[in-house]
Design a protein that fits this description.
Rieske Iron-sulfur Protein; 23% strand; single chain; 9 helices; 26% helix; 2 domains; Naphthalene 1,2-dioxygenase Alpha Subunit, Chain A, domain 1; alpha+beta
């Protein structure tokens, strides 16, 4: 007699291509636990820019399900990652989200570790105690042109090196290591993390919901169903796109689309697109928010380099600032979205940039998106919900996200 398929396996097997997922994927705590175990526990997770720990001894803590990870800058300026768990009796080492330390000292019994995770001091343990066998448990960490990814798996996906090789030429010109964090804002959305990610992967909703964001976005830049009425506009946009790509490539800025969202374990996509109006930045007037440009850029209208990673991030790189987003699940119906704005390390607030101008577009857009995804979560709880069809013109990347997610869960789940 064959073994009956698990409820999750049944849902995965009957997933209909080109349609949204069934309700349990967004509401069921048991599936959420599988997401934490197999998606966030076995893949490379973006956690933040390296300048979140700019100096020796700086640390941040990252919460992934029940796991707390400590990201720390060591004395040799390397970024290390450890499980935030003392090897004595399991106490959390650092309870604050961020701070600075000389060594990592457990607040319970003062076991002390250096910034490479080596146990230096453990009082009252006797002469036979093997100190070297009780160092902090490391977490795999990869710095890609200033973006920090971690992986909780014992054997992380090796194709992170393919992502690094492909993306470093795109990201490196912006010199994240020469940036600083202007501000960082966390918001909690009452929805499943996949709704947050799906909403990000399309701009079908942008025109009717994001008046601030669409000031600088070209109407045809993120997909549009061609009609006799808009064919001329689409052709004009494509001409602008090709002209700008040629200009940027002549400057040494890679810009062509790379799309591996659903054909790699470590899925990613990138493309540099022109901006509308002043064409300089994602601001309320499409001009730069910071007069101090990044790196050694001499030209402000460099468009916006977009970079998406599976399962939990997206990023926008402009001439004057960078906006980077990480999504971390809290529960089946609660998600944290962390937005970080980066400017040149020498930019001075009040002189080179105004924080309100810098953040206005994405503060507004995040609030609007929060309302949208929470409304979606409410609707999906209804017995009337059933998977609906994706637009083949504007929701292609949503389909690729769902393909990646269901394929990876199918490969790893019991």
């Amino acid at each position: 007699m064959s073994t009956p398929a698990s409820p999750l396996r049944t849902l995965l097997d009957r997933r209909k291509s080109g349609y949204s997922l069934e309700a349990p994927f967004y509401t069921d705590p048991a599936i959420f636990e599988q997401d934490i175990k197999h998606i966030f526990g076995q893949h490379w997770i973006y956690v933040g820019p390296e300048v979140m720990v700019p100096e020796e001894g700086d640390f941040v803590t990252i919460e992934i399900g029940r796991t707390s990870v400590l990201i720390v800058r060591s004395d040799d300026m390397q970024v290390n990652a450890f499980h935030n768990v003392c090897r004595h009796r399991g106490s959390r080492l650092c309870t604050e989200h961020k701070g600075s330390v000389g060594n990592l000292v457990c607040p319970y019994h003062q076991w002390t570790y250096n910034l490479e995770g080596t146990l230096l001091f453990a009082e009252h343990m006797g002469e036979s105690f093997n100190r070297s066998g009780h160092n902090l448990k490391p977490v795999h960490v990869r710095n890609i042109a200033g973006l920090i990814f971690i992986c909780l798996a014992e054997n992380p996906p090796k194709d992170i090196e393919d992502l690094a090789a492909a993306m470093t030429p795109y990201i490196a010109p912006h010199r994240i290591s020469d940036c600083k964090i202007a501000t960082q804002i966390d918001i909690i959305e009452d929805c499943n993390w996949k709704l947050t990610m799906e909403n990000n992967r399309e701009c079908y909703h942008c025109r009717g919901n994001h008046p601030e964001l669409t000031i600088s976005l070209y109407e045809y830049g993120f997909g549009y169903a061609p009609t006799p009425e808009n064919c001329e506009g689409i052709d004009q946009y494509n001409q602008i796109l090709e002209q700008r790509h040629q200009q940027w490539e002549a400057m040494g800025l890679p810009c062509r689309e790379l799309d591996h969202l659903d054909d790699c374990i470590t899925g990613f996509r990138t493309q540099r697109l022109p901006l509308d109006r002043a064409g300089q930045s994602q601001t309320m007037n499409a001009k730069v928010a910071s007069s101090k440009l990044l790196a050694d850029f001499q030209q402000a209208d460099l468009g916006a380099l977009s970079f998406w990673t599976q399962p939990n991030s997206w990023h926008h790189f402009m001439s004057d600032h960078i906006v980077t987003f990480t999504v971390l699940p809290i529960s089946a119906e609660k998600t944290m979205v962390r937005t970080t704005w980066l400017v040149h390390k020498d930019a001075v607030e009040g002189r080179d940039y105004n924080l309100k101008d810098l953040t206005a577009v994405w503060v507004a857009t995040n609030a609007q998106d929060r309302a949208l995804v929470e409304r979606s979560q409410q609707g999906i709880r209804s017995d009337a919900y059933e998977p609906g069809p994706y637009s083949p013109f504007t929701e292609m990347l949503v389909e690729k996200f769902c393909n990646w997610y269901t394929n990876r869960l199918s490969a790893l789940a019991e």
